[in-house]
Amino acid sequence: MIEIEHLTKRFGETIVVDDVSLTVDEGTIAVFVGTSGAGKSTLLRMINRLIEPSSGRVLIDGQDTMAIPEDDLRHRIGYVIQGYGLFPHRTVIENIATVPRLLGWDAKRIAARVEELLDLFQLDSAEFAAKYPHELSGGQQQRVGVARALAAKPALLLMDEPFGALDPVIRHKAQEDLLAIQRRLGTTIMLVTHDMDEAFHLGDRIAVMDQARLLQYATPAELLTRPAEEFVERLVGTAERPFRLLSLARVKDAIEPGPSQGEPLPVSATLREALSQLVWTGRESLPVTDASGAILGRISIDGILAHGRQPA
Amino acid sequence: MRAGPVLWRLAALVLLLVFITKPQLFAFVFEPLTINNAPAIYNQGSLFSLTLAHLGTVFSAALASTIIAVTLGIFVTRPSGLEFLALSRSLVNIGQTFPPIAVLAIAVPLVGFGEKPTLIALFLYGLLPIFENTLSGLTQVSPLTLEAAKGMGMSPRRRLIEVELPLALPVILAGIRLSVVINLGTATIGSTVAAKGLGEVIIAGLQSNNMAFILQGGLVVALLAVLISDALMSVERFAARKLGQAPS
């Protein structure tokens, strides 16, 4: 669990982060959004003390980060930045092994861990192990960057615009991969982005920052239905609101009994995907199946639309 | 590298080696340049040992320049040394602007004739290219890479040794090459203060009005400079390739 208490950063007269307090639960993803210069990156960098806070403190599992020597602290926190900062003079293997090597793991343990990570990130070790970063595509570099950050099994992963340099198709895939890996490892993630779709896609909770202040820290659904300030409302995009709500809910939330015709939808699909399928096929409803293919009921346009409506 | 240039270099190296070990074989080339039956080939010492002495002087001076200039370059790019940047720059610049011959004139009364004043002059003259290249090599390391290194908990020392210096290496090597090549030529003036070296041949030629001697000394120095510059350049290319930079 990460507890941020009254964290503030001043550079001379300018306040970059103004009295921010929030808690990130173990194993969840907190996404920080806001305009550029809102203080998101500074906040993130105060957690691994790349920037020293002016006041306030950060507790990781109850331990004050100021009580831990800064290099030791950083060995325990994964850090991924936009552009990744891979070492150009080191191979993929050597890059991933950076923190375990700093920690003095023995060669066998390092090799086993690197192998495990290459596997996890779908990088064929025979093909990629000895390559240098400039021989990799953007998507591969990104995966090596995240693998390197996770090498020493950190409980917390800080990510500053980790998908910013990827084209949209690869970006979506990379987000899916990150979610899958996060669920598998249970890593707590704090991620900075200015892409609202990314925030809603990845975040268990979203922190909205503007002009150094934290305006709202809530679940994606709350952010949409009960925005704390006008700025939050504008940032989430009023035109996008119902669709975002629909992508947060699943078919199982709107399933109704009764028969229907057509290509069945999986119960795990989002309501947005279901709606788009209904619109595309021109039907009023479609059958719903579970993973084994058994029919569970049906989903209708009216049932879906009710979920995208403004709460009373 | 293509085979053609390699063969040319190999041929030049063989020519040089044969010439400095068996110069008499080439006497017929230089005879037309002599007058009054003067000797066509330098006869007051072995060209081979003069070449070795010349190289010895240049490389000792380059080694000293490298150690001092790289250390200084590292120091002034650390947070604690930043304020000495301007001062170090002007000191090193003085070393370059002060003519080596003037350094000899000042150094001889202090350290005597021979190799020492030459070493001092070459050392000072060779500092600037290495220092400037160390600075630009270290400052051009991507801030992203450094941020990542710091964020992963690398200490400043490790960042320097494992990240900054390896990444700056091709540029630093280019500085060393420049310094060595400049000093291969400059070292000839050492012979005016009785340092052993190829300058002896040239000066002997000037004193006895023997064009053959002047040409011999000059050619050996020029060939040395070309070959050594080439060799150091391939070391640079090798280092740069390891970093994934396009070979220049």
TrEMBL record, chain A:
Gene3D superfamilies per record: P-loop containing nucleotide triphosphate hydrolases
Keyword match Transport: yes
Pfam families: ABC_tran (PF00005)
Example GO BP: quaternary ammonium group transport
InterPro entries cross-referenced by the UniProt entry: AAA+_ATPase (IPR003593), ABC_transporter-like_ATP-bd (IPR003439), ABC_transporter-like_CS (IPR017871), CBS_dom_sf (IPR046342), P-loop_NTPase (IPR027417)
Annotated GO MF terms: ATP binding; ATP hydrolysis activity
Keywords linked to the UniProt accession: ATP-binding, Nucleotide-binding, Transport
Domain spans labelled ABC transporter: 2-236
Taxonomy, superkingdom: Bacteria
Family: Belongs to the ABC transporter superfamily.
PANTHER family: OSMOPROTECTANT IMPORT ATP-BINDING PROTEIN OSMV (PTHR43117)
Stated name of the protein: ABC transporter ATP-binding protein
Organism this protein belongs to: Microvirga alba
Automatic annotation (TrEMBL), chain B:
A Pfam family assignment: BPD_transp_1
Gene3D superfamilies: MetI-like
UniProt entry keywords in alphabetical sequence: Membrane, Transmembrane, Transmembrane helix, Transport
SUPFAM superfamilies, per database record: MetI-like (SSF161098)
InterPro entries: ABC_transp_perm/SBD, MetI-like, MetI-like_sf
Transmembrane intervals: 51-76, 97-114, 120-146, 167-193, 213-233
Membrane-protein topology: Multi-pass membrane protein
GO biological process: glycine betaine transport; transmembrane transport
GO cellular component, one term: plasma membrane
Subcellular location: Cell membrane
Residue ranges of every copy of the ABC transmembrane type-1 domain listed in the record: 51-232
Similarity comment text for this entry: Belongs to the binding-protein-dependent transport system permease family.
Stated name of the protein: ABC transporter permease
Record organism: Microvirga alba
